[in-house]
Write a structure and sequence with these properties.
It comes from Roseateles rivi. By secondary structure, the protein is of the alpha/beta class. The protein has 10 helices and 7 strands. α7 (159-175) packs parallel to α8. The chain is globular. It starts with a helix and ends with a strand.
């Protein structure tokens, strides 16, 4: 077989292996969620409710891409900064007796957040040692927050790749006793077919994670599927202060509901 034929075939075999692994992770993650799905629209049956984990006191770790890193927000107004403020003395989350450690990095994809030894196709990026799950778990978090809203899709990765990678992060953390909560995709200036992929990612993640997926895309989107002007930073990708406040509010509400994890008292 010529080398020109072998490289694509090799990649196809690798991606087929990832798809099979994803099915296994999806099955394992039937117990990842903290509650049933909330109208995901997915044809797959959502897992039944599981007992929400009681969070221990201690630090939380946030990993993800530019929105989690604070892009588009004024100083101190990103959703991560607002969350960190809530964990401070006298804040709404002060009972956690910890702080938010943010290892998010703009421009990254879910592949770069995977553990370093995770398999991947030859044309997919390697993990970043200071921004991946290995780093997050080395910080011994009481809670892991994962936020990769749209870079995978912008890079033309498939729905299954993104879902598989995020579920692998969640399950790996769970195996080490660390509960996770995941933020959904966000609207972005994209072709309609790519916007539809974001819809599919959210549906599949909600089917697997239940209440441990915080859906924000619909609230942030305008009629055209792009970021609504009220929440847009102006570059077609990032959120302004109001958009970050919406993210923070949705995440905080889910945490306070106790349907995914139960906060320390």
């Amino acid at each position: 077989m010529s080398s020109t034929l072998f490289a694509p075939l090799s990649r196809l075999v690798s991606l087929r292996g990832r798809a099979l692994a994803a099915a296994g992770v999806l099955a394992l993650c039937a117990a990842c969620g903290g509650g049933g799905a909330e109208g995901s629209g997915s044809e797959a049956a959502a897992p039944g409710p599981s007992q929400p984990a009681r969070l221990a006191s201690g630090d939380w770790v946030l990993m993800g891409s530019s929105t989690a890193a604070g892009a588009g927000a004024s100083s101190g107004r990103s959703f991560a900064a607002l969350l960190a403020q809530g964990m401070g003395s006298g804040g709404m989350l002060a009972a956690q007796q910890g702080r938010l450690q943010n290892i998010a990095l703009g421009g990254t994809t879910t592949y770069q957040g995977l553990p370093a030894l995770s398999p991947r196709a030859v044309d997919r990026p390697a993990s970043l040692p200071n921004n991946n799950l290995d780093k997050a778990l080395s910080l011994k978090p009481a809670l892991l927050i994962i936020a990769y809203p749209s870079n995978d899709t912008a890079m033309r990765y498939t729905v299954q790749e993104t879902v598989s990678n995020i579920l692998l992060m969640v399950q790996t953390a769970k195996q080490q006793g660390v509960p996770s909560i995941v933020l959904s995709t966000q609207p972005r200036d994209m072709l309609p077919a790519l916007q539809e992929q974001l819809v599919q990612i959210d549906a599949q993640l909600e089917a697997a994670l239940g209440a441990c997926l915080v859906r924000v895309r619909e609230a942030l989107a305008g009629p055209d599927g792009r970021i609504a002007p009220a929440y847009a930073f102006g570059d077609g990708v990032h959120l302004n202060d109001a958009g970050h406040a919406l993210l923070h509010g949705a995440l905080l509400k889910r945490l306070q509901q106790g349907s995914c994890v139960r906060l320390a008292q």
